[in-house]
Design brief:
Layout: H1 3-14, E1 18-23, H2 31-41, H3 56-66, E2 70-77, H4 83-98, E3 101-106, E4 119-123, E5 127-133, E6 139-145, H5 148-164, E7 166-167
Parallel strand pairs: 1-2, 2-3
Antiparallel strand pairs: 1-4, 3-7, 4-5, 5-6
Helix pairs in contact: 3-4
Amino acid sequence: MSQTDLAFADLLAKTRYSAVHLEMRDSYGIGEEAAEFEAWRSGWRPSPEPDTWWNDFHAMVREAVARGVVFRRARVVSEPVSDYIKYEHGCTYQNIAAGELVRWLPRRKASDLTLPGNDFWLFDSEIIMWNHFTGDGGSAGPELDERPAVAKLCATAFDAVWNRATPHEEYRV
């Protein structure tokens, strides 16, 4: 497990009621996901059987949900969507199976929202894990932030996106 994964796991283990994730990029190029995306572009599709894709992340989410943590993920996307977003949309059933709630917001509908400059996780409306990326979508490492005013900004931004976004089951790519 990477240091990023260990930091996430530690934060999640301490989370009492809420974990939200705001994603705002149209493509990512992170580790094994980049290879899987390229395979997807060549026609491969993941099996619907959980034993073929279930991993530590899914197990952590399921455990947190079982103890009462509500997991929400919102994605702000350009339309028409990129191939990467098509791939992500097609694999989101995995997040949902683990217990996440997922919504999608077309970028045009977010123009009047105040949003942070980076993707983030927000745990219990108090601790932010910023997700920094390179220009080509690779991870540039996380950064923890516990400033109350910034956590409030993130919570407000996430809720604004969530309230406008379309539930995964209804969003068509």
